[in-house]
Amino acid sequence: MTSLEITYVGGPTALIAIGGLRLLTDPTFDAPGEYPVGARTLVKTAGPALRAEELGPVDAVLLSHDQHPDNLDTSGRGYLQDAPVTLSTASAYERIGAPVRAVRPWESVELARPDGGALRVTAVPAQHGPDGSLPLVGEVTGFVLSGEGLPRVYVSGDNASLDVVREIAGREGPFDVAVLFAGAARTPLVPDAPLTLTSEDAARAAEILGADRVVPLHFEHWGHFTQDGSTLTKAFAEAGLTDRLRLPEPGASVRVP
Question: Beta strand 118-125 with 108-112: parallel, antiparallel or unpaired?
Fold first, then answer.
């Protein structure tokens, strides 16, 4: 099986190199500052470790959702205009149009690999908060990456539900690598529950998915995250899963397995 390399840009943004292709998750390249979303304001505390132009060309963007500036900011929207294809939700397509391609849950798209094979990208459900929060937070998607001779990879997007994780594991698992958006995000919009995985739930998700390696994203660089790298390290240690966790450093790459 070939290896996978994940370069951490910051927040939810990472470059995934797999099967000779380069995929970018949730482009966010804006500077630190205050970013309004509806009646609320999200505070970005750190800029990207790498600029868009430093990443080089990509083959596709995996956009979990477009309606929140911590997952797609102004610079990120500009970035989409030059990307060959952006896979995202039907809602994102309705709002942005081309270059977004809508992929509904369990729908797959095949991207041609340089070696003549294909990388299959399958959209999977994501629940951005507790049950019933969809009308408040909007539609979100996750992704599964698979192909002959490649590691099977789950990219969660902003999912907070272990029931969703169980459904994905049952239909698409087990996984070699799980890229989990964590941080236990909280905002006044849904004050009583996290909008993304807690550190403890990220460890549980690793077990549910059967993932040999876990690379967290979206656990820092924004003020609405209530947990961080230290809580992830602690939660995985308490679950006896320290050997599975690969906590990325901004600007650095993690090679797995």
Answer: antiparallel
0.90 exceeded by pTM? yes
Q: Please work out, in degrees rounded to the nearest 5, the angle formed at the alpha carbon of residue 197 by the alpha carbons of 127 and 138.
A: 25
Question: Residue 48's CB: how many other CB atoms inside 10 A?
Answer: 25
Exposure of 66 in the CB half-sphere (CA atoms within 13 A): 24
Torsion of Cα atoms, 200 then 201 then 206 then 208, to 10°: 130
At 120, give phi and psi (nearest 5°): -90, 125
Q: What is the pLDDT along the chain (257 residues), one digit of tens a residue?
A: 688 999 999 999 999 999 999 999 999 999 999 998 887 899 999 999 999 999 999 999 999 999 999 999 999 999 999 999 999 999 999 999 998 999 999 999 999 999 889 999 999 999 999 999 899 999 999 999 999 999 999 999 999 999 999 999 999 999 999 999 999 999 888 888 999 999 999 999 999 999 999 999 999 999 999 999 999 999 999 999 999 999 999 999 999 87
Q: Which of 148, 200, 198, 204 is nearest to 178 (CA)?
A: 204
